[in-house]
Each structure stands twice: as structure tokens, then as C-alpha cells.
Amino acid sequence: MPFLGPKALYRKCNCFYTLYMKMLTPIALCLFFCMAFTSNAAAAFDYNAAVQNTYGQYPNYIAIHTVQPAYTIDWRSSRSLLWSYAQNLIHKEFTGRRYAMGHSWFEVSCSSPAAGYRQHLLSSQLEVSMDEFVAKLKEGEGFALFTFTTGGRLQTKEDALKQLAALAPKRKHLNTAVFRISERACAKAMGFYNQYQQSGAYKKYGLGVKPDKFEGGGCASVAAAVAKAGGVQTKQWMRRVSLSMEGFPTQERKVKLQQLFFKNFSFGTDQLTSTITMDFYDLQLIYNWTQKHYLDNALIKKYKIAESPVIEFNLAPYQP
Q1: What pLDDT does residue 113 have?
Q2: Is residue 153 in some structural domain?
Q3: Is the dihedral of CA 197, 199, 202, 206 positive or negative?
Q4: Which carries the bigger pLDDT value, residue 41 or residue 146?
Q5: Would you say 65 and 109 are in contact if contact means Cβ atoms under 8 Å apart?
Q6: Separation of alpha carbons 70 and 97, rounded Å
Q7: Are the beta carbons of 232 and 315 closer than 8 angstroms?
Q8: Interatomic CA distance for residues 203 and 45, integer angstroms
Q9: Strand runs (DSSP E) across the chain, as ranges?
């Protein structure tokens, strides 16, 4: 290879640099404009305005918004449950997805032309922290955790709107079931929420507690309780599991995490051993039920808000 003097070397390097920049600049500009367009599109999406242009025009309604877990929660056995739970935790860690386990919101809007008022709420049941739950799991509380409660809180309307606006443009994340109801039914739903809030029950977050008995609740159970108070049929959103008594700790023994995984207790209702049956509202069932109606039910009104399916049922004519 011939020796290159400083000037020749500079010209050669400059030539490569110019060629590199000519190739890189269009790619960089393309990426920049794509990112800017995506960012502006996301920022420009107004979920509240989209609601007002669709079901928000109805005088009285309940809407249940559900985002599905990143990975389906598998309720066949203790091992499959722990494995799917771990998958969602890992997904949350790596993606930062806030609702990797799924989530449900409830929306109620009531009005009375005679009285001249309109009330609207949008909220969800949240946990304050899951640290205490994880600590109990590690300590060997086993299936007793199904009845365990930790600190809870109600989400603000502003935060809920922000989250729904971020989720709606994403495919296969969020769906919504809207129920048009009578003025009287709407007042009952709103009244239940006010009682739930005033009782302080929302300060207890858990899977096995009953919101309608003011014991506390989880996101799906509180959303379903609000809907049920407004006359919505909610049995199709409920899951039943049978918990083996061997999975519960006693004074003499703990049930560690590894035992739940390796012994692999079945949650089926046909077990031969002594069990405790537990019923609870499952957000995965709510999401699947809404999605099935969106895809298969030709008799209902359905559409999308951004990329999120919405279905409507008009219950008002059948309610007092």
C-alpha cells in the first residue's frame, strides 16, 4: 500500500466522511420526522374529546375500560399462575409498561333534565404499593394471600384520562364496554360509588375482598361492583377457583414460594382433596368478553376510539 501524505490522507478521509454523511443524513432525517410525527400524534390525541363525540353524548351510562395483561394470567394451577405472573413482572421491568398485569377503570355519567344537573366520574381502584404483598409471599403465606389486603387508593380522573389517552392508540391493549342505563339506575351506580368512597373501603386493596360489602377491592371487582349497582349483569366476568387446604399456612408450617411452584396445586373445582372455593372478578374475563362481542356480535353498536374497540348495550328501555 503506497504511503499517503497528510494532504492525501485528509482528502481520502474527508471523502469517506462526506459519503458517510450523505448516507446517514436521509436516515437520520427520516427517523427524526417519524419520531416527531409519532410523538405529536400521541400528544395530539384527546381521549375526552373522542368520548364526547361518541358515547359521551348519552344522558346516562356506565363504561368499563379494560387493558389486558401483557401475558395471559393462567389460572389452571399455582405453577402456571406464578409463571404468568413472573412473565408480566419481567415485561414490566423491561418495557416500563404501567399496567403489565392489566387494569380496569369505571366511568359513570348521570344527568337529569328535570333537575338540570350532570355528574361524571372516571376512576379505578389502585394499590399504594405491592411491597407488603411480595414480602408476605416470600414469608410463606401461600394461598392466604388470596384474602390478604394491602393499602389502596382511588385514581384521579385526570390521571385516568391521561392513561386512557396513552393506551387507546395502541392496538390490542384497551377495550371498552358501554352500557346505556336509566336515570334511576345511574343514580344507584353513582350512589354506590359515593358510599364506597365515604366508607374508606378503597383504602384496602385485594383480590378476595368484596367492594359491595365495603371490605375493599381490586380494580376489576370495584369496576364490576359499580356496573352491577347500575343494573349491569356481571356474572360473566367472575372466575371461580378451588384452593387446596394444603396451600394454606398453619401455625406449624409455612407454604413457601417454591412449594407453590413445584407441588403445583390445581385450581380446578374437581379436586379430591379438601378445598376452599373462591369467586372473584377477573379483568381478563372482562377484556375477553368485550372483545368477543366486538368481533362476533352483529346486533350491537360497535366502533373504535383510536385503535381501541368499543361496544354498546342499551339497557335503559328495560330498566325502571
Answers
A1: 79
A2: yes
A3: negative
A4: 146
A5: no
A6: 9
A7: yes
A8: 32
A9: 61-67, 103-112, 117-123, 125-127, 150-154, 174-180, 204-205, 238-244, 275-281, 301-305, 308-314
pLDDT band of 81, cuts 50, 70, 90: very high
Q: Is the pLDDT of residue 27 over 80?
A: no
Whole-angstrom distance, CA of residue 308 vs CA of residue 303: 8
DSSP 67-92: E--SS----SBHHHHHHHHHHHHHHH
Residue 16 belongs to a domain: no
Residue partners of 203: CB distance under 8 A and separation at least 6: 151, 152, 153, 216
Give residue-wise pLDDT tens across range 89-129: 888 888 777 788 899 999 999 998 777 889 999 999 999 99
* Residues paired with residue 1 on neighbouring β-strands, in sequence order: none
> Per-residue b/e over 156-167, b at no fewer than 16 CB within 10 Å?
eeeebbebbbeb
111 in a structural domain: yes
Residue 6: inside a domain: no
What's the predicted TM-score (pTM) here?
0.84
C-beta neighbour count of 316 within 10 angstroms = 19
Position 11 pLDDT exceeds 60: no
Note down the domain range covering 243. 58-318
Reading the block at residue 116, the C-alpha cell is: 338540570
Residue 167 makes CB contacts below 8 A (sequence gap 6+) with 67, 99, 173, 174, 308
C-alpha distances out from residue 195 to 60, 172, 198, 209, 231, Å: 19, 34, 5, 16, 17
Total domains, the chain:
1
Residue owning grid cell 368485550: 290
Task: Give the model confidence (pLDDT) of 186-241 as tens digits.
Answer: 999 999 999 999 999 999 999 989 999 999 999 999 999 999 999 999 999 999 99
* Of 127, 133, 134, nearest in space to 147 by CA: 133
